[in-house]
Amino acid sequence: MRLNKRFQRFWAQEKSLTILLLILVVHIFVIIPIGQRTILGETIFLIFYAALLSAGLFLLVKNTKLRMLLIFILVFLLLLGSDFFFTSVSLGVIDDCIAVVYCIMLGWVVLLRTFSEGPVTIHRIQGAVVVYLLVSLVFALLYHSIYLLNTETAFKNLSSFDRKELMYFSLTTLTTVGYGDITPALASTRSLANIEALVGQLYPAILIARLVSMEFESSKMNKEK
Questions:
Q1: Per-residue model confidence as pLDDT tens digits over 112-144
Q2: CATH number for the domain including 215?
Q3: Could you tell me which of 133, 158, 136 has the C-alpha nearest to residue 148?
Q4: I need a labelling partner for 50 at 20 to 30 A (CA). Which of 43, 84, 121, 138 fits?
Q5: pTM to 2 decimals?
């Protein structure tokens, strides 16, 4: 009980955004690139995915019992959507869609905390980076869902169905690097890629302008005092 209260107090602080960023960075840039084609890779992926979901639920849900129930349900769905027991396209798509909804909700909560009243701190800036990375993860999950439904025609030059390939494509699209080694082939994947590239351009510009104005207003008020 005391441990749970400590976790609640910790996630109520701005520095929790730094921990969330660390988990997300390790998940996207270390765990996913390892791949899921082996039992070890699948296990490590699920552990860090569950850690990301559990950490975010401390921000999203205040009720302890509801939070534990949601964690159990999400981990159960992750296991069903994985290849541990059997391969199912429908379960994989459902798993991706639930993760997309979760990431959107988490991103919204982090944005509210990032742009709430008060001085702009390093933790808030890191919270903004969390949302940026969540955007790439959301699109990677959407690409993965479309690929599961349209395996042969969704993308050109896609070497495997592993999530690391689609995470790589999502990040290069979001940052508008566009190497061209993987290209969307369906109207749906092309539209998603266009939307992601647009978000990748507008989000940093709008974010930086907003954070700068908040810092300017905060500094001005401090000087007046």
A1: 888 877 777 788 888 889 999 999 999 999 998
A2: 1.10.287.70
A3: 158
A4: 121
A5: 0.84
